[in-house]
TrEMBL record:
The lineage of its organism: Bacteria, Bacillati, Actinomycetota, Actinomycetes, Kitasatosporales. This is Tetratricopeptide repeat protein. It comes from Streptomyces inhibens. It comes from the Bacteria. InterPro entries: TPR-like_helical_dom_sf.
Length: 478
């Protein structure tokens, strides 16, 4: 996610108008007292926001024209019946730069429950808004973009590159260029949350190259230089993650190393912790568990100077994953206990914005992966069920990931028919999501279930899985 500075700068693309309606909703509470009320309300609905007096001030000044989805849910909980315009905010479609919808968007239901179908429709509608931010029309239309799968369309629109930084006139970079880097990070991560990495990785390297070119430009203000370094480092991590999720482990390792070097150059502890965090994750997936432990411990060392128990919780989980890969049950359990204890402290204002994905669902999902690696399939399945049930609909890719984890755990624990049902749900989600990592997990489940092909649900899943493997994918298009 973008930094507060990024959202601030992006909101100044139009003149700010004081949000009088929101100021009236605050009533006699001070900004600090109101921020505390916002955080309490967020906890009531299982949301996490780092609201403080400064954020309230930015809203009331009109600097924040429209809140993000997490804040919107909290505000609607606090003020039932009020819409965003009622609270003084601009409609989201206006802020996103998109006109009214002209066509309905269909969605693949996750289950027969109507609530799930409504959720899927909402996901697709929001996803369409994001996709159109990357396809600006003109020459893109001549490429037949509308006829392609939405993800393939984004990948094919080579004439409509990702929004990103450009070399400034005269070779001098300023706040506008720093903001462009931060916006590129935010928009790429939003698209990845919905659709996974495949199909966007190659194009995401374009703004990354531009961002690092800006680091060599003439920057006169230290604050701008710091933003450029932090933004370029976060963009390197973001692109590294796209490579990681696409199965390009060597590319991912290179991007994470680039981010780490950037962090060391500018003395950015938060960026260093993030780079080591992702390096630990990659090492675990690449079969280097001892490196995963060391990288996670290095990340925790860097994060000690940051006021974020939630970050330390996530890093403890990264360490636990490494211990699980080493079959060290005691080390894993100790790290898991530390992760749960730190998570229970709750969100803090110092939590990095890139951690918006880390809630109860992610905690449960990562614990499931640890237990699966330790060979405790039944316990892993219990945690995976919890992860799927708790996952925010915004994170479509993670819903697919944890459902794939559930399918694998059920297959390993001797519940083939349940595994097949979960596998079918993943296949439906893979029509929206492109992730080599998830596909690999599902392939493993299919291999395990072949011994149960006499079961009708299993046979149906295996047939559908085989069909999906033969279909063109965004991976082949990239």
């Amino acid at each position: 996610m973008a930094s507060p500075a990024a959202r601030s700068a992006s909101s100044r693309t139009v003149p700010a108008r004081p949000n009088i309606a929101f100021r009236q909703l605050r009533g006699r509470l001070s900004p600090g007292e109101f921020a505390a009320a916002v955080r309490r309300s967020a906890r009531e609905i299982g949301e996490q926001v780092s609201c403080d007096a400064r954020y309230v001030g930015r809203v009331e000044s009109g600097e924040i024209r429209c809140p993000n989805y997490a804040y919107e849910r909290v505000f609607r909980h606090m003020f039932p019946g009020l819409t965003l315009p009622d609270m003084g905010f601009a409609p989201r479609e206006a802020v996103r730069g998109r006109g009214a919808r002209t066509a309905a968007v269909s969605a693949v239901p996750l289950a027969t429950d109507p609530d799930h179908r409504d959720t899927c429709i909402q996901i697709c509608e929001e996803s369409d808004v994001l996709r159109r931010a990357f396809i600006t029309g003109g020459p893109a239309a001549a490429l037949g973009i509308a006829a392609l799968h939405p993800i393939e369309a984004a990948a094919a629109a080579t004439s409509a590159p990702f929004p990103g930084p450009r070399t400034p006139p005269g070779g001098r970079a300023g706040a506008a260029e720093a903001t462009a880097v931060e916006q590129a990070v935010r928009q790429i991560r939003l698209l990845d949350d919905r659709h996974g990495a495949e199909g966007i990785y190659r194009r995401a390297t374009q703004p990354l190259r531009a961002a690092y070119e800006l680091l060599d430009s003439d920057v006169q203000r230290r604050s701008v230089s710091d933003r450029l370094h932090a933004g370029a480092g976060e963009l390197a991590i973001t692109v590294g993650w796209l490579a990681h999720d696409s199965g390009r482990f060597d590319d991912a390792r290179s991007h994470y190393a680039e981010a780490l070097a950037t962090a060391r150059v500018c003395g950015d502890a938060a960026l260093e912790a993030h780079a080591f965090c992702n390096t630990a994750f990659l090492a675990r997936d690449a079969g280097r568990p001892r490196e995963a432990v060391r990288a996670a411990q290095a990340a925790q060392q860097a994060a000690k100077q940051l006021a974020s128990p939630r970050l330390l919780s996530l890093l403890a989980l990264r360490e636990a994953g490494g211990w699980a890969g080493l079959s060290d049950r005691a080390g894993c359990e100790q790290a898991l206990a530390r992760a749960e204890r730190l998570f229970a402290v709750g969100p803090r204002d110092g939590d990095p914005e890139w951690m918006t994905f880390y809630g109860e669902a992610e905690l449960a999902g990562l614990e499931a992966q640890c237990w699966a690696a330790l060979g405790d399939a039944e316990r892993a399945a219990d945690y995976a069920r919890r992860a799927v049930a708790l996952q925010d609909p915004h994170f479509t890719r993670n819903i697919a990931l944890f459902t794939a984890e559930l399918a694998a755990d059920l297959a390993a624990s001797g519940a083939p028919e349940e595994a097949a049902v979960a596998g079918m749900q993943v296949l439906a989600l893979l029509e929206q999501v492109r992730s080599a990592r998830i596909r690999t997990m599902l392939d493993g489940t299919a291999r395990r279930l072949r011994a149960y092909r006499d079961s009708a649900p299993v046979a149906g899943f295996l047939a559908r899985h085989a069909e999906s493997a033969d279909a063109p994918t965004a991976r082949q298009q990239a």
